## 1
Amino acid sequence: MEVGIDKIGFYTSNYYLDVVDLAKARNVDPNKYLIGIGQKKQAVINPTQDAVTMAANASINFLTEQDKQDIKMIIFGTETGVDNSKSAAVYLQNLLGINKSSKAFEIKQACYGATAGLQIACDYVRLHPDDKVLVVGSDIARYGIKTPGEITQGGGAVSMLVTANPEIIAINETSTFYSEDIMDFWRPIYSRNALVDGHYSNEIYLQFFQKTYHEYLQQTGKKIDDFAALLFHLPFTKMGIKGLKSILDEDSDEYKRLLEHFENARNFNANVGNLYTGSLYLSFLSLIANDHGLKTGDLIGFFSYGSGAQGEFFSGNIKNIDNDKYRLPIENMLSKRKKLSVAEYEKIYEITLPNDNSDFEFDISDDKARFVLTGRKNGHLVYEEQSDRML
Ligand code: HMG
């Protein structure tokens, strides 16, 4: 029996920053951001969106009433949780109307959370083939203003329905993983912004990739030319190029072939930025939406990385290809976004719920998403569904 991703959806907020504008404001050569980092646009998350609403907005378009009955587990990967105790998965269950006879919980390990969720989901469905599992990765990537990490911000959510006999990709059972206590990137409890040792984090990422990738080849007997494409966690899209170069000679035919597929796989990420847990899966969506060379049965390699640090390499075989089904809605969503000036972005960056238990109401007039965070009342977060205003 095959198990894997049957349905997938994506959401990001309706604001973005052009990285050329950011470069000019920071006195940086725009080519450093466009070529050196590999980004074009950066999602700026509207204060009326959080990890919960983004996950709900990513899921709502593909879940049927039957799916909502069949889901037995909701796994929420995030490092932008909305509560230190209550999981974002329970809020999501309520917003989406998923049946209550299900397990709902949150996973945190930096950008690795959604992969942990996907693997748990696949193992669960292998044992319970009639059940479905909803796995989401939803995050806001935030660094300090005017820090080197600023260009690698972004945000959004990817939602996946894991089932037996999946429509999109079957995930293979073997995966290789490695974890070690490393301080390359972290976010202390007191801080909204991540702290990072940037160059060190790049090094560790590549070390974990090489370790897990080579171990995967050893365990499975596969070779590089068995893979139609290699996908990477993309904190910024140049990272995937670094990954490919770390295992292949730039002049080799294999490098050129995989680079061609990677160009399709980084298209959406270059226009959204880092969404932490969801980034690898946005890259997968970008591949299946934009790569017209993919065929049923093609083997795709996935490298997942979460700072701190955890790496995992796994693979899947493509089931059905329908590029436009995935490309058109995402292109539509991205094209409707409003471009912000750097001054507007810096203003939005500061807006947050007060750091106490006081009541607060956001102005939601500029947010057309189906689910929004309207504020806080009596200590409770208030989420609203605006069914007539969906993106
Ligand atoms: P930096 O020090 O400002 O940049 O920060 P740089 O000087 O290293 O330059 C970057 C690249 O631009 C270099 O290319 C330059 O040569 C090139 P590379 O050597 O890397 O190939 N460059 C130019 N190219 C063309 N024209 C020019 C030009 N000028 C320079 N004029 C850094 C870069 C990524 C360190 C910083 O943005 C940062 O700290 N980002 C946050 C950390 C991060 O994203 N780390 C990635 C690995 S860790 C990870 O993926 C996990 C994470 O997602 C968190 C989680 O797990 O939750 C972050």
## 2
Amino acid sequence: MLMKTEEHSANAVFSPEAGALAERFPGNFVWGVATSAYQIEGAAHEDGRGDSIWDEFCRRPGAIKDGSSGARACDHYHRIGEDVGLIASLGVNAYRFSLAWPRVQPLGAGGWNEKGFEFYDRLIDGLLERGVAPYLTLYHWDLPQALQESGGWVNRDTVGRFADYAAEVARRFGGRAASIATHNDPWVVAILGHEAGIFAPGLKSQKSAMQVSHHLLLSHGIALQALRAQHCTVPLGIVLNQSPIHPDTDSPEDLAKARLDDGLTIRWYMDALLHGRYPDDVLAFLGEDAPQIAPGDMEAIRQPLDFLGINYYTRNLSGTGAPLDPVKSGKEITDMGWEVFPGGMTELLQRLDGDYSLPPIYIMENGAAYPDRLVDGRVADAQRTRYLRSHIAAMADALEGGVDVRGYFVWSLLDNFEWADGYTKRFGLVFVDYATQRRTLKDSALWYRAFCAKARTATAGGSSATTGRSNDR
Ligand code: FCB
């Protein structure tokens, strides 16, 4: 019979080099795992939760690859006891998750749903009892559908609704959270949701998308002002997905296209948040589609950040010719078709550090989807372990180069509902059998657990994360 004890697997996947890697980080570095509400909770219509734009989007024929939805997902809502135990068993010291706005305020305005808050109360207390710090995200894409019916993020009123929601969450959980992030990936919400139309709410208008991006940023700024006005002392920030953009070729056309894409994906958000303006080249490109900006908006967006979260998965290639086919190009890719490019994380962090006066940085998501299979109780996902190891090493390079990186979260704790891809992509450290909801630690989870154990006792010298660095506020 195959030896398949956890210990056997851990030995098989944990190499001495990983121990040396752990030693490149200070002992107080934050090591976590991440999820988001709609992707794992399920219980979409229980205990008073309202509809979100994702519930509605999933009803559209053809919107989700496998015709599924997050209605049941990982059934996390009913399994938080088991799942908190699972998180703690990994030996991580942090867990990043989002609150479902429609669970705590079903209509996005007016009455609060106490049952919804009780769920997050139990989650947060359960984590704290196990020594795991809760990192909250307020908005990971699940807008209450009632707000969408009056225009959603295209409507400026949603900014105020979001600030009210943020203030209520902070009032209840601010004393127990390790940090609160306003938005996750505003580029995805704006562009994939309102221009490409492949994510909820499925609109196809560049003008709307850019207005949405402005309202998301504005709601972040107004929420931070509201939270600070009520003396919330928990670290506050935002999470951006960012990829270095590399030109397909050195032709002037490709270089110009790559620069514009850099503007649309990186500088649009970073310049607004840290410099209080949008990049001129992008505004010129947008012309009539540029957002309407009221007096005072840009100052409101540029609030002091206690931290900046970055989600890093890959680099992006950009050019004027036909998009390069990553499969045919022979590059190593994940099941998402995303190139495995760890050096891009170092490059990105160093570039941001050079161009902006950054607050402390957290890698709030990093991970990979692979077509995992559970065989004889084991998931042998050596590719994912390699992916994680190489990206943690890339982060260590940035740290040693002087970037103030404080933490790292693997996306994701569990296999889950991967948006328009439904359940066809598996990002988890933990394999989920959706029919039985049985959870099984993949080999990569055993590796990460062993890595975190090493990291807890590591004492790397000289890193900015231990000495701290002034956050230009
Ligand atoms: C990120 C999202 C997360 C997940 C990963 C693969 O951009 O924040 O929910 O979908 O991509």
## 3
Amino acid sequence: MEYRGYDSAGVAIINKGLHVYKKKGKVANLEESLVAKDMHAHAGMGHTRWATHGEPSDRNAHPHVSANGKLAMIHNGIIENYARLKQELINKGYTFKSDTDTEVLLNFVQDIQQNNHCGLEEALRIALKRVVGAYVLVLLDADNPDTIIAARKGSPLVIGVGKGEHFLASDASPIIEYTKEVVYVNDYELAIIKADELVLKNLGNEKLTPFIQKLDLQLAAIEKGGYDHFMLKEIFEQPDTIFDCLRGRLDVQASTITMAGVQNNIDKLKNADRIVMIACGTSWHAGLVAEYIFEELCRIPVEVEYASEFRYRNPVVRPGDVIIAISQSGETADTIVAIDKAKEQGAFIFGVVNVVGSSIARISHAGAYTHAGPEIGVASTKAFTAQLAVLTMIALKVAQEKGTIDQKRYNHLLNELHEIPEKATAVLRQSEHIKKIAAKYKDARDFLYLGRGYNFPVALEGALKLKEISYIHAEGYPAAEMKHGPIALVDEHLPVVFVATRDSYHDKIVSNIQEIKARKGKVLAVITEDDTTITGMADDTMVVPAADELVAPMLSVIPMQLLSYYVGILKELDVDKPRNLAKSVTVE
Ligand code: F6R
């Protein structure tokens, strides 16, 4: 679970009483501090934190312990009305050991339990009716050492069902080593778990039947498989993950794309008045590429929205609108709430999600999985290219059904898509060359990334990857926009990365490169392999095989990923767990 948060970690076990151990920093720090401890127990829980309320420290790490020392709680999410609850508790004489909202909620539960002389389960149910915010909670009770109680609203929770044992986690990856049978807990549900019993209830205390699903996930998929880092493994997996994403869907011989989620809703999709892509971060960049593709092929107006902005303004959404929600994790809180908002206003929601069974996959009306396999490296890489592959297939299918693409172009693009995995392999062969380029520029203070058309979002993605992994300030811009401001940054110290594969903007971007050279900027360019024009101008080049401009971003992004990775490792940074980040952003 460490990839979901790693600023501190802690465990609680019950073994003749409640024992809680916590440490600031990565799990390894905690592990080291526990070497000499007896950690045997029949019930226990652990947590890795991404700080919201209170700086990363031993005392703010989870699990938290209630004032009476009997209850322990771990919590993901944010309790929005915690300040008011805290004041109520302070008025009653409670004191707090941490700065967290979690400790407030825990003592609130304890207080209810004491006042109502009730068990933990009932106290939790009462407490949750007053709580505003998102959470997944897991509790241990020293008076009931065989039981774990959990509750969910807005943050993910999966329960693994083993033989005489149960497991709880934020996603399925740590569970698959022990069992492939899982239950996804829904919002407003409570799970009361013993080694050999799982009871699921709603907040009205009614029992629910757990729906057990079988996971189709192999252990090897969440291991490093001989690579130094997950990020590198995931970059190198891309020929396979793109292939997996196309497999069973794209048939070049038959000239077909088979996607049930699209086919079953084709009328809604092809008659959409407007498509709104909603996403965050790297997934938002995939949405930007898709905007160009959908408008070009389907002639449907497209808007691309940051989920976090869309949800808080008063967006105009009409029943004829199709929302395409893009998310690797399927658990990004901002995206989930934006979907809920659009749904309320009658939009049709189509999810493009990587994690099977995740919240976004479940709340969408229809969707298509990206099938990239688990992405553990905190910086998104293979999920991005798989998102592009899926979104391109959807656009092609809709365009064909709508009659906005002729058969020749359709067949050509099917073939171009089909060739991407092989061409991606060719790009990866340059990794040593890109490592040398990384060594040359790793000490730069700033980077500028420029691209036009389909490659403009790739420039944004390149800049985001570098920022995340190397902590170097980087900005992505449409290449033509640079003369309206960012060009003021250019001097002989500034590396400018051009994503400049051969496309309909090529001559224009060549002029932009000249403009940078004229101001002594250092030019690093991602180019098509036979491009002698840019080779003659750039300080360094990274080549990709020729491809139609519509599918080229799946190739041109790979050198960007490798460049960030190598700058990161040459600076001796933890590329899989960059500071301040977490893999799934399940808080707003
Ligand atoms: C960047 C990165 C983030 C995510 C963003 C959305 O490398 O990983 O920007 O893309 O947090 O996450 P998902 O796609 O899980 O909704």
## 4
Amino acid sequence: MNPFHPIPRTDLPRPPHALPLAGSAHVWWSAAGVDAATRARVSAPRAILPALPVDRPLVMGIVNVTPDSFSDGGTAQTLEAALARAQAMVAAGADILDIGGESTRPGAAEVPVADEIARTAPVIAAIRAAGIVTPVSIDTRKAGVAAAALRAGADIVNDVSALSWDADLARVTAEAGVPICLMHAQGTPQTMQADPRYGDVLAEVYEYLARRIDHAVAQGIAPGRIITDPGIGFGKTLPHNLTLLRGLARFHTLGAPILLGASRKRFIGTISGVEAAAARMPGSVAVALWAAAQGAQVIRVHDVAETVQALALWRALTQEAGE
Ligand code: 9MG
């Protein structure tokens, strides 16, 4: 049987049986006829870190420190450029900075641990030395990279392999007591776009994430420290991506925050006919607004200022008068 699938709504005024979707001040769902345990699970706020609000979507700014970054052409490869990018994102309203030293674009090669640490840890240390207190996530599959990043001042682990790449990453995360994002991917970045197949993509990604949550908890990670992500573009065709985006609210039934990363991805270029990744900002903002309306807690983007502005308008329009 499929898990409970709340229908997210933003229309106003809200009826008496409306409950906040996962703590949102903007998205609600109708709890009429739903049992008490499901109501509580689907409505409860999902805190990521004490400093971060729980009632609106958070914007996670992408700081790639990779020479082959698909979206920035490697212009953020030096420490100074990466720091400047982080500062600009904070000024534009980013809630979280996601620092990555290994490209996850389709076909990307693995980066040795030492190189990945050399790319990311100094950037995180420089961010902290510059007085930036914005939470930082380390985008890595590797325990050694995560440990170095956490020592340098990172607060969150963002693992696109959902703890399937490096058996030691669960221990590092559990011992640090930090949140971790578990993302679904079919295959690795090297292989994932070679004819991905599913019977029912929404059900299979949901079940996979449920299993990875169980695995993380069995490894000592607190359930309240787990973030989930359907992994748009990671071993998915265009129809798979659209099905996951349409059904995004189902993942609230997992009881964890939802992170959505679609920014500048290939499917946006395919639908819009825009080949250059850097020119896919408008489509990326459209998907960010869609994710917000599905109650996603974190939206991972390259274009922070544009996304923050769009979400400010969306929040004003979806907030009940007097709130
Ligand atoms: C690193 N990275 C690239 N795309 C991503 C996505 O969609 N989600 C998460 N969590 N990380 C991503």
